[in-house]
Amino acid sequence: MAKKLLFYTSVNTSKVTGANLYVSRIIKKLDENNHFDIDLFALDFAKEEGRIDEFKNFKNVKIRYYKFKPFYIFSYIKIIIDSLRKFRDVEYVAFRTIFFHPLMFLVKIINPKCKIVWFHDGIIEEISFLKNNIFSKIIVFVFSLIEKFFSRYVDYYLPVSHKMKEYSQKKRYTIKNSIVLPCIVDTKLFHRIGIENAGKEIVIGYAGSLTKWQGFENGCKYIKFLERNNFKIFFNVLTFDIRKANEFLDKYSINGSVKLIKNDDVPKEMRKWWFAIIPKVENLITEVASPLKVAEAMAMGIPLIISKNIGDYSEIVNKNRWGIVVDFSNVETWNETLSILEFLLNNYEKISNEIREYAKLNLSLEYLNFVIYNIFK
């Protein structure tokens, strides 16, 4: 008999994001083989019509979308009302985002035997990072207290990184049973053997937005540094910000291309890459993160050129020599990376195979199956 599960999340169905893909892959995996009778409640932050729906093609999931605006609580109240009648006989309640912590307290009052699962893929401090003013700092303080108090009612805690778990422990959240669940990928789609069109040019790939904290310009500076040291580079950029990306390539006279492609076409384009560059600006948000594009590159066996302190990945790359950990803010240290690049090129196939094997064990749908089994068995 299928187990009853309520899943609460916030989404933005107006665009494809790592968060949307993170949620949809988890829901689809839970929905497989009719093991769960699922109700999915989503606060939808979409501002545009003609939404890109990441939640399509579910077999049994009943999806309810609610657009949520700051201080507009009616949608939240409606979710509570629609949920109340389900609380008494539900076996599991899963949630992500700060909005639903108080709701878990209500679940435990009505049904103490229900198991609560927290998918923790983001931190409230992101608000003050985006808008660093006194009002945002007050919001972070208040919501951190809420999160700390209601974390005691969570039965299973699933952070996206060990760094996220360590940060939650520093904030003295109550952590009972925990399993790290990074952003996962379909390794059958994100798969390659060798490099397509491998020639004299080293193809370095970048995928994502060009918001300031992504550090794209620093990545361009580093690529230009490699060119000045006699490495022939082709920079393959996949982004929505086509005009801005082209401006940076022109500014630094970098040979490359900028494309906007469908999400389904990303694996095909990434098969051309020799390296993936992740030049994120170091901050608290990136220190606990699990970037989806890193997981996708590793599933392909692509070595990384990555900033320091990016979730668990910078340490993994440095420890296993699976790429280059670059201090993008300190140009004087870049010469030290040249010998590492030579080592990677000379041992490319072996390193690529090691990265792929790691991804299969730790970043795949099979690993997600393992986590689901251990929690929902």
Task: Provide a compact summary of the structure.
The chain is of the alpha/beta class.
Explain this structure to me?
With about 375 residues, the protein is of the alpha/beta class. Helices cover about 40% and strands about 20% of the residues. It is built from 15 helices and 13 strands. It has helices at about 20-30, 75-85, 100-110, 125-130, 135-150, 160-170, 215-230, 240-250, 265-270, 285, 290-300, 315-320, 340-345, 350-360, 365-375; strands at about 5-10, 35-45, 60-65, 90-95, 115-120, 155-160, 175-180, 200-205, 235-240, 255-260, 275-280, 305, 325. The strands form 2 sheets. It has a 7-stranded parallel sheet with strand order 3-2-1-4-5-6-7, sandwiched between helices. Strands 10-9-8-11-12-13 form a 6-stranded parallel sheet, sandwiched between helices. Helix 8 (about 240-250) links the parallel strand 9 and strand 10. Helix 1 (about 20-30) crosses helix 15. It is globular, with a radius of gyration of 22 Å. The two termini are about 15 Å apart. The relative contact order is 0.11. The model has no long low-confidence stretch (mean pLDDT about 90).
List keywords for this structure.
6-stranded parallel β-sheet, 15 helices, 7-stranded parallel β-sheet, alpha/beta, 377 residues, 13 strands, 18% strand
Q: What structural class do you assign from the helix and strand content?
A: alpha/beta
**Could you give a short account of the major beta sheet?**
7 strands, parallel
What would you report as the Rg, rounded to the nearest angstrom? 22 Å
Q: Uncertain regions: pLDDT < 50 for 5+ in a row?
A: none
Order of helices and strands: EHEEHEHEHHEHEEHEHEHEHHEHEHHH
Q: What's the pLDDT, averaged over the residues? A: 89
Beta strands, count? 13
The termini sit apart by: 13 Å
Please work out how many helical segments DSSP would assign. 15
Helical content class: 40-55%
Beta-strand share of residues: 15-25%
Strand order of the largest sheet: 3-2-1-4-5-6-7
Overall spatial form: globular
